[in-house]
Amino acid sequence: MYLSAELFYQRIVEDFGNLGKIRLDDPMLIKDLVTVAINAEAEKDDNSLDEISSQTSSLSDADSIHDLLVSKSKMLDDYFSLEISPEGYVNSLPLLLDTYYPHMERLPQYLLDLGRKVNWKEERGCFETFAFQTALFYAVPPGDDKDNEDITPVRSFLSKKYLFLVRQPMIFVFRTGKVGSGP
After folding, report:
1. What pLDDT score was predicted for residue 182?
2. Which of 8, 76, 66 is nearest to 37 (CA)?
3. pLDDT of residue 179
4. Which of 43, 88, 89, 158 can bridge 27 by disulfide, Cβ–Cβ 3.0-4.6 Å?
5. How far apart, in whole angstroms, are the C-alpha atoms of residue 21 and residue 174?
6. pLDDT at 53
7. Can you tell me the mean pLDDT for 21-28?
8. Which phi and psi angles does 122 have, rounded to 5°?
9. Domain residue spans in the chain?
10. Residues 7 and 170 sit within 8 Å (Cβ to Cβ)
């Protein structure tokens, strides 16, 4: 697992029930986001048996996850600062570190993983698996330059600059054990 995921998991444990919120300017519907993630998985697998049955199945899965997360919205907001409206819009995400925000393009997969991989049946299992999936969503995956051999020098510079800016708040926490934006 990534070192940053461990940091975020510990932040969730440490501030359980007292996390800040990242307010979303444009709330997004869970069903739409989960459908995007399911379709991306289907494209990756590229072995869909039948397009119509695949679409029906993905809509059914998206509906189930949407309903599940809406039914758990009060608990998710109280304990984890994940605010979901009664209509199923994601209004806020947990704030785990000042000045750090997760990759929003990974939000659809995160919501899909909450529906599929969180143990909603028992309290301890729910806490551990929810915290783990959230930590993975926030984690910064290690860079692999071999995957990016064909990118332009400008994009390479911007990627390195982005990683520098993203990693700084985490490095501060690792070094000092204090959460904040600086000394």
Report:
1. 39
2. 66
3. 55
4. 89
5. 22
6. 47
7. 94
8. -130, 145
9. 3-142
10. yes
Alpha-carbon distances of 121 from 13, 76, 77, 126, rounded to whole Å: 19, 14, 18, 7
Share of residues in the chain with pLDDT > 90 (%) = 49
**Residue 94 parent element (H or E):** strand 89-95
C-alpha to C-alpha distance for 113 and 131, rounded to whole angstroms: 12
Question: How far are the Cα atoms of 5, 95, 101, 132, 144 from residue 141, in angstroms, in the given order?
Answer: 9, 19, 14, 15, 9
Q: Which whole-number Å values give the CA distances from 13 to 42, 81, 122, 167, in the listed order?
A: 34, 13, 17, 21
Instruction: Name every residue whose Cβ is closer than 8 Å to that of residue 64 and which is 6 or more positions away in sequence.
Output: 115
Name the H helices within the chain.
3-14, 30-45, 51-71, 73-80, 107-117, 123-138, 153-176
How far, in Å, CA of 176 to CA of 132, rounded?
Answer: 23
CA distances (Å), 90 to each of 28, 47, 49, 61, 70, in order? 5, 31, 32, 18, 10
The structure tokens listed for 106 are 């990974």
Look-up of token digits 């993203």 = 166
